[in-house]
Amino acid sequence: xxxxxxxxxxLLAACGASAAAAAEPIGAVIDKDFKVxxxxxxxxxxxxxxKPGFPRTVERGDVKMVGPGDWTAGFFPGSLWYLFEATGDxxxxxxxxxxxxxxxxxxxxxxxxxxxxxxxxxxxxxxxLVDDAATRSAYxxxxxxGATTLITRFNPKVGSIQSWDLWPNTTWxxxxxxxxxxxxxxxxxxxxxxxxxxxxxxxxxxxxxxxxNHFRPDGSSFHLVDYDPKTGAVRARVTVQGxxxxxxxxxxxxxxxxxxxxxxxxxxxxxxxxQAHKIARFYTTHPRLPADKVPFWDFDDPAxxxxxxxxSAAAIAASSLLELATFxxxxxxxxxxxxxxxxxxxxxxxxxxxxxxxxxxxxxKHATGHKPAKSEIDVPLNxxxxxxxxxxxxxKAARSGTGSFH
Length: 406
Ligand code: GLY
Hints:
Helix content: 40-55%
Number of strands: 7
Oligomer: single chain
CATH class: Mainly Alpha
Structural class: mainly alpha
Bound molecules: glycine
CATH topology: Glycosyltransferase
Number of domains: 1
Number of helices: 14
Shape: globular
């Protein structure tokens, strides 16, 4: 008799329960998740009603709302669109349209790089999911306006879009963060929609510059690269949201994975695919990745295993890997799908997925926003929910291999 058999004999109920959970067909897990999501987002919609803005997280026991200038504003309407896509229930479409319209001010916001997030999740998914010509035309115009605003931050000398303005008390000259890869999808869409190659050229230049300067030999990335705007030379490689300049901030790795996978889909450039695989290898085989595949907020925090997790990084990585699998050979694809499925099973368990009524109405627990600033540690976050829903839809193969845009 093996030790495992003895332990299972003693803890029969527990072992039986975990075997049953592991054996639950993934389709049933996904269906259950969307039921929970529907219940939770009804609660969140009620809580948000009558308050200005968009739910972002829970702070001091209350839902924290943010305005349309916040980089996360689009994720709430984006999740409502995903709920409409998953259920076909028109309630979600009505709510998604209402909140998408509220993200409109981002179209002309020249002060930040996050317009791809802010407009893409709402207008981008809406354009994919609505039929009527007037709405489609309005959404298309909003996305094109946003893309046109975003490229005002491009500097041809650097070959990048500037991420943040020069905040007081920093020595930066032209800061670019790895997260910025995510905003390029808006430009790739705009190039096709307007038949205007300039958007695409800028997106490719940005991706090429990041490829050259953001990555370490092991495939991990720096958070922020600062450039000399006059010469394009690298001035510094630092972190703002990670543990240390040389560490691997988990969400940054996930943004890079998603970004280069998406850029490969849009361009079929081998160098982007190679980089996506390299990041995937770093992330999926990391010795400090917990068995449930939900990473600590930074792979190099010396407090591991007592460091907070980041469920948002797990959801973004799972969604990315499901797309990367569609560009991979059969064995690699199976590995990526299996990894993503394990991640999503973890996120669907009681350890991470809220019980209806809990977690302020959000879905996932245990995400980390900005640990060095002591902000949003071990909390729900609207973008963790958004990429969780996206990954579930991708896993269901409802839209595998596609992005937010037509
Ligand atoms: N893009 C900001 C963040 O990932 O926290």
